[in-house]
């Protein structure tokens, strides 16, 4: 009986479930918060939510065409949706707009399902979600983000302005003579200002990354220069903390690459900075290695390893989150905002990579990541002089020092130069190796010593030089200290750490290279005294800046670099002075009282005539990308961000106004004025050989033709100068450049090329100045050419060289 009852109940349940299921589905449709409709060309279902969303009742909507709700501007889009549905494809959460009964538009997300019959579209079910509130929230969030970004940009501007004075003044003080205590105080001021600046920059970058507004550049750059400048920047910190810095740059990375060098440098700055911060003693190593290469790309791995405090797995798991450090005691002891690694991780992620970490408490940490770069133009090889490859055949080197990593890096660099080497830690073992090599006629030509604590490297150098069998061995010492005056008799080359590949190569080249021409002077940029650069004296700079402190500072900085400077504090004064006087460069602050820097620049550009183009550089505490673009859009040629260090100022101005283009500057020889009439011996020699082969004095014939036409060319140049017709001057210089090069006046031709370039770029004052200098050289050129022509027909190359040396 139970069994029968069970059967009956089961049958009844199935029947009821089907009915209930239909009712449930209808109930869901009727009570859905989303508008639901169906159509087969006309609307045939309309739920209450659709009435609420669109304002039409079911009676008003049903029977109307499906386009009832489609705005006229969306009809093409609607037809494409229908075509997709006709193919049996669903449409998922498609963002668009629909038309209400009152004529207003509403933002919606549409999901549509095709109902197919016999392979054709029979009907469509449409679910529409009202996005109005979400759009309001998104707009509110965007506005909040914008306000936050504006606030941070304004705060950055206000903080950078006094930081510019603090850091810049400290930097200038350090370049002057002062007692050790005051020098120490100035270093504290500078380093504290730079720390505050890094924190400000980190906050700005984190804000940009969080908002998705930080975009990577793709420009050509030199990896060798990038790593070298990075290492140089940390050299003082390593010297003070007495840490060993070992860095290795793969020799294969001498090619140019394309990427974002600024952000790459920022990542490496953070990683190396952290390694230094958390390492009390031992070594920090930086390795840059080519791990994969194709015809067009290169995969480069960056590795930063330290012997510092290390990290537990718990700390590692949250290390790349913002504002995170090991614990509160770590923050108190080592400082920092906790943003550096979070920013670095996000930047590496934008480069399609990830930072990997290996660490153990008490045993240090290793951070590594790999980035794929496009290849660009070839960069000069470190192991070449003037483009000529250098070989060190038969030279063996011995590397001696306590640090295993440092010895390994130096040994790899030597190998990349083609020098066989051996690495030894202890001086006693090194001495035995040196003597053994001598006895076996396998001498070591050079010993590279890490100076180490208590100058033990220098002591070992004296031991080597006192040994009668070894005193011809060259000795190179690598030290964190400057060389002393009492070591010249035992040290052949003293290199200040960190030693870059180029500096090491140049040092060995000076000692051994068969391509050497006389003495090669190697100047260590870390210890060489800074000197004003008089070659810039002919360049006049107008500074438009309203802050008195910044006025004094920038005037001091520009004066130190060798520029002639005038300062005004508003745009009106600048416009008046520019109308009366001649300047090559204007440094324009953007936030000025009265007329701002953008409008002032536009007015300057409006007044320029006859092809003139004054170089105008923004000089501002605004650092946001849109502000940089605003400066360029206003007509400025470049952008300098406060606070500005001396080297950055020099590099930026030289990039827009190169030293070799400055008035009174000899382009080929780096000397002021004159000597443009000097001739090229190689060209004379080639013409002499041609004369011998043909039996005619070819050089004399070419010279006669050039000299006879020179007066006409000079007249054209003078006319162009007097009328300030730059196109005419460029045309004259183009012709003179070619003809002078043919007869060997290569210095003269090079200046012609620079005048032509300046004239085409509208740099009237510079083009005129160089052209006048060229006219003076033109007076001397015929005599030099006619004198040389008698030799070019019969003499040899040596005679030609001798002749021109005696004539200078």
Helix content: 40-55%
**With helices defined by DSSP (H or I, 4 residues minimum), what is the helix count?**
26
Report on the biggest sheet. Answer: 7 strands, mixed
Instruction: Tell the overall outline.
Output: globular
Low-confidence stretches: 1-15, 327-335, 514-532, 663-677, 790-808
Distance between the termini: 131 Å
Topology, element by element:
Blueprint: H1 2-31, E1 35-39, E2 43-46, H2 48-54, H3 58-61, H4 75-86, E3 91-99, E4 105-117, E5 120-130, H5 132-174, H6 180-211, E6 219-221, H7 223-241, E7 244-249, E8 255-259, H8 261-277, E9 283-293, E10 297-306, H9 313-317, H10 328-334, H11 340-350, E11 356-359, E12 365-378, E13 384-385, E14 388-389, E15 396-400, H12 404-417, E16 420-424, H13 427-439, E17 446-450, H14 456-466, E18 474-479, E19 493-496, H15 501-512, E20 540-544, H16 548-561, E21 564-568, H17 571-580, E22 585-588, H18 597-607, E23 615-620, H19 625-633, E24 638-641, H20 646-656, H21 681-694, H22 698-723, H23 726-742, H24 746-760, H25 764-792, H26 797-807
Parallel strand pairs: 7-9, 15-16, 15-17, 17-18, 18-19, 20-21, 20-22, 22-23, 23-24
Antiparallel strand pairs: 1-2, 1-5, 3-4, 4-5, 6-8, 8-12, 9-10, 10-12, 11-12, 13-14
Helix pairs in contact: 5-6, 5-16, 6-11, 7-8, 8-11, 17-18, 21-26, 22-23, 22-25, 23-24, 24-25, 25-26
């Amino acid at each position: 009986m139970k069994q029968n009852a069970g059967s009956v109940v089961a049958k009844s349940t199935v029947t009821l479930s089907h009915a209930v299921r239909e009712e449930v589905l209808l109930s869901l449709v009727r009570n859905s918060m989303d508008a639901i409709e169906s159509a087969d060309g006309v609307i045939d279902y309309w739920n209450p939510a659709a009435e609420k969303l669109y304002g039409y009742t079911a009676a008003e909507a049903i029977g109307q065409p499906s386009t009832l709700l489609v705005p006229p501007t969306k009809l093409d889009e609607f037809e494409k949706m229908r075509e997709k549905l006709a193919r049996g494809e669903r449409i998922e959460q498609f963002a668009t707009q629909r038309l209400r009964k009152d004529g207003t538009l509403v933002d919606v997300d549409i999901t549509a399902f095709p109902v197919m019959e016999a392979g054709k579209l029979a009907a469509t079910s449409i679910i529409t979600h009202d996005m109005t509130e979400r759009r309001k929230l998104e707009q509110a969030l965007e506005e909040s983000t914008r306000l936050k970004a504006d606030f941070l940009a304004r705060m950055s501007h206000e903080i950078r302005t006094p930081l510019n004075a603090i850091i810049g003044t400290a930097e200038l003080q350090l370049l002057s003579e002062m007692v050790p205590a005051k020098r120490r105080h100035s270093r504290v001021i500078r380093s504290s200002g730079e720390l505050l600046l890094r924190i400000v920059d980190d906050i700005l970058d984190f804000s940009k990354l969080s908002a998705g507004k930080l975009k990577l550049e793709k420009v050509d750059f030199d990896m060798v220069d990038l790593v070298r400048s990075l290492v140089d920047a940390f050299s003082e910190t390593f010297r003070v903390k007495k840490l060993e810095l070992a860095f290795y740059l793969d020799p294969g990375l001498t090619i140019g690459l394309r990427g974002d060098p600024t952000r790459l440098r920022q990542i490496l700055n953070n990683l190396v900075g952290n390694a230094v911060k958390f390492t009390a003693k031992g070594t920090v190593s930086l390795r840059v290695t080519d791990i994969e290469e194709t015809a067009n790309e290169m995969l480069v791995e960056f590795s930063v390893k330290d012997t510092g405090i290390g990290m537990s797995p718990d700390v590692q798991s949250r290390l790349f989150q913002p504002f995170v450090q090991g614990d509160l005691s770590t923050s108190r002891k080592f400082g920092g905002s906790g943003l550096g690694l979070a920013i670095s991780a996000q930047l590496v992620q934008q480069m399609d990579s990830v930072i990997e970490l290996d660490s153990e408490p008490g045993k240090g940490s290793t951070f590594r990541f790999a980035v794929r770069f496009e290849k660009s133009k070839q960069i000069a090889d470190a192991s070449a002089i003037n483009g000529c490859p250098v070989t060190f055949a038969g030279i063996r080197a011995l590397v001696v020092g306590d640090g295993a990593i440092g010895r390994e890096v130096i040994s790899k660099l030597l190998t990349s130069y083609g020098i066989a080497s051996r690495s030894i830690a202890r001086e006693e073992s090194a001495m035995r190796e040196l003597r053994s090599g001598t006895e076996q006629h396998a001498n070591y030509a050079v010993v590279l010593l890490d100076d180490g604590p208590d100058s033990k490297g220098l002591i070992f150098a004296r031991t080597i030089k006192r040994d009668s069998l070894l005193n011809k061995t060259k000795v190179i010492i690598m030290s964190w200290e400057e060389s002393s005056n009492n070591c010249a008799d035992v040290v052949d080359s003293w290199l200040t750490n960190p030693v870059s590949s180029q500096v090491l190569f140049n040092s060995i080249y000076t000692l051994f290279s068969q391509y050497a021409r006389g003495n090669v002077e190697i100047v260590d940029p870390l210890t060489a005294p800074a000197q004003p650069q008089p070659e810039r004296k002919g360049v006049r700079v107008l500074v438009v800046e309203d802050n008195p402190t910044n006025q004094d500072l920038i005037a001091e900085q520009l004066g130190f670099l060798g520029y002639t400077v005038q300062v005004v504090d508003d745009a009106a004064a600048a416009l008046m002075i520019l109308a009366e006087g001649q300047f090559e460069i204007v440094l324009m602050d953007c936030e000025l009282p009265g007329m701002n820097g953008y409008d002032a620049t536009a007015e300057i550009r409006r007044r320029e005539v006859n092809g003139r183009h004054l170089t105008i550089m923004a000089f501002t505490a605004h650092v946001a990308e849109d502000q940089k673009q605003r400066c360029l859009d206003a007509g400025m040629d470049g952008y300098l961000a406060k606070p500005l260090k001396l080297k950055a100022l020099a590099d930026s101005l030289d990039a827009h106004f190169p030293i070799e283009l400055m008035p009174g500057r000899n382009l080929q020889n780096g000397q002021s004025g004159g000597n443009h009439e000097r001739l090229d011996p190689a060209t004379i020699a080639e013409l002499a050989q041609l004369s011998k082969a043909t039996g005619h004095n070819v050089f004399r014939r070419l010279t006669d033709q050039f000299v006879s036409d020179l007066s006409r060319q000079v007249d054209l140049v003078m006319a162009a100068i007097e009328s300030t017709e730059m196109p005419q001057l460029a045309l004259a210089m183009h012709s003179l450049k070619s003809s002078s090069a043919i007869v060997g006046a290569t210095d003269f031709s090079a200046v012609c090329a620079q005048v032509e370039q300046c004239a085409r770029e509208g740099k009237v004052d510079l083009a005129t100045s160089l052209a006048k200098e060229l006219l003076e050289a033109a007076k001397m050129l015929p005599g030099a050419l006619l004198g040389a022509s008698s030799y070019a027909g019969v003499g040899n190359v040596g005679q030609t060289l001798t002749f021109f040396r005696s004539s200078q």
